[in-house]
Amino acid sequence: MEEGGEIICSAKEEKEVMDTPKRSKNTQIATSIGKFEESPVFNFLNNLSPIKPVKPMHISQTINPLSFTTLPAVFASPHVSSLRESRFLRRHQLSDPSKPEFSSDEGMAVDKSSEPTKKLDEQKENLDPRASEFEKNVVEFGENFNYDCNSPNSNLRSSSYLKTKHMAEYACNPSRFVPFGEEGSQRGIYVSEVNQEGITQIDPNKEPSSCDWESLISDASDLLVFESPNDYKKPIDQGSSLCENDMQKNLDAFAPNEQTGEGNEQENLSTQPGDGSEMMVNFETNDMIDASLLNDPSEKMDSENLSGLYRGMRRRCLVFDMSGARSKHFDDMQSDANVPTQDQQLVLEKTGNDSTRCVLSGIGLHLNALATTPKDYKIANHEASASGRLQISTTPSSSVNFQPQTTNQDFSNNNLAIVAFSEQQIETFENCVLPPMEDACQVSGYIANEEINQSSSPKKKKRRLEQGVEGESSCKRCNCKKSKCLKLYCECFAAGVYCVEPCACMDCFNKPIHEDTVLATRKQIESRNPLAFAPKVVRGSDSLSETGDDSSKTPASARHKRGCNCKKSGCLKKYCECYQGGVGCSINCRCEGCKNAFGRKDGSGVIGTELEFGEDETTTENPLNLNTESVPPATPLRAVRQSVQRPFSSKKKPPRSSFPSIGSSSSVFYDSSQSYGKQSSFQPPPPPKFVEHFETIGEDEIPEFLQCVSPISGIKMSSPNQKRVSPPHGVGMSPGGLRSSRKLILQSIPSFPSLTPNQ
DNA sequence: GAGTTTGAAACT
DNA sequence: CAGTTTCAAACTC
């Protein structure tokens, strides 16, 4: 386990910037620890506190600078801010038990678990007043969410989650829960009294008896779902420094393991050191970082070059795969969803179904473009589920399972959770860099699944999707005859998904059985054009967001990255990728006679009518609404958000005329151009084929690693900055240094995981 | 459903 | 980089 964990960790570290420094520091810290223990201060503390000195290992963890710096933010930061925090940082903070105050607690917990709870609390207060505060908050929160600890189906998850994770990991360190709890409460993650209970009760011996472990686990799994596999492994990575051993022991003691294969997975999950916040983080990051990688050792082993591509592919593919395999379980899942004993499986399968449905439905082939929808998180789940497939081949990774579970319970069992999560975190998710691959299909599919669940058979549903819930456009699959679905001609392939049943392709190689071929081809194409699989249409955050004006949710600033080359269609038909993507033409376009209803290349897009248009959009289901969002209409949450956030704030923005050239810039900045002009010839645009990413992403929201990612090389884009009055806040300069386009970066990166250096 | 049109993707 | 070919979606009938 350790070896594997290390390997994983190493791989992970490379990905995560945060880890890198950490590792190097560990040794140094460790060396310094000895001195620290000898220091007068340390002795003094020891005298004051009953807590026994913590093992050097713990301390080393504690010392991590990152945790120190970030931790305060966690406590103090409001929900919004927290959401925007770097995931990695956050994860790091939260996951890192190393805070000084905590460390002592931790040590105490380990050594003195038998001590009365009060004592622990007192100690805790002494050590960290903030911890106590948080604890209180947690309690309050818990009060709000009462649930029966014994009931697996109840909201217990949170508690179970905490127990599983924290108990095993931290062995009754209440303080640890604090940050988490707060975070969780903010996010709608349930940290409840149980948590407290768990904290106080953390007696390993008791654990099994107090609550049904399995049920807890299963419940916990829900929460765990949010965690990314990466995190899961990450702890392990850190394990050397962290209480790996302790964790393991605790696990053994607490976790009954009786659970079968799944149980193992669960166990793994439970062992995750991460905390609640982490869970959120993970969840968010899931898209960005391929969980599958971690899950699948084989993948890890793969050369990094391949890994990115591979993973990206796999995820997508997996989704389909899973779907197919698990689709039949779906109905069963529904009926059994609430069954505690089978929660895990059910959840997992269920999730798979969701994804499956989406996939099967064939909706949204253009995954690349996929936008961040509320479902994004769902997508993540799907991916996770997809990764489940990976499990088959290589690893019994738990990480895979957890997400699906979350989906399950959240949706099926706990409406509240769903609501809280979705509303509070949707934004986060949206903000998150999503994998390009998430396809509309999946997104809409999820919804469709929900709908379907209620009434119809899978086939019916599928058919329904194919026909296009949204409209005719989104539900088709490929129909390739000669390309073998291994070229970008193939929408499935281009979207990064395997062809599925609905496809009418011939000699299709875009199937799991030809995975190697697919990956190789994909890699080849990527080598030719790194952004080949990136979203064609990117939605950049508008200038407002850049300028820091959050008040308005940015206008739609989506544009086709490369621009169209229409000659005859006038950019008024779906032949035009811009039009198809629901975005206006930009400077990048070489189109002739552009009449793009979403915005003309020359910037002459009808603005006067824009306002009306926008209003109409918001009030109606007009596909145009999706333009900026580029999300399939099907998603309820999304729909809501759209109405709310819709960038059509463009109305608020100065008329295009005021920014004559702005529209020109690449997808990233053009704001003004974004207006959906209403033209005499205007035709209601079709549901966007492509989805833009990051519409709401704030600069700050973007993880640094993403910011640092190399920008798109292959795309022809004009420099946004050229026309911009106010340069972007210097966050991430693209390596090229031409534009500070974090937006630009975001566009490319998010959608295309493989491109990111972190992979 | 067959045929045409179109423009992206691929190739040279 | 430009021109040509191939391809499959979009469109028309």
UniProtKB/TrEMBL annotation:
Its main location: nucleus. Residues 11-22, 112-128 have a biased composition (Basic and acidic residues). Residues 474-599 form the CRC domain. It is found in: Nucleus. Pfam families: TCR. Coiled coil: none annotated. Residues 1-26, 91-128, 255-275, 541-561, 612-664, 717-742 are annotated as: Disordered. It comes from the Eukaryota. Transmembrane segments: none annotated. The keyword Secreted does not apply. Residues 257-268, 620-629 have a biased composition (Low complexity). Keywords: Nucleus. InterPro entries: CRC (IPR005172), Tesmin/TSO1-like_CXC (IPR033467), TSO1-like (IPR044522). Belongs to the lin-54 family. This is CRC domain-containing protein.
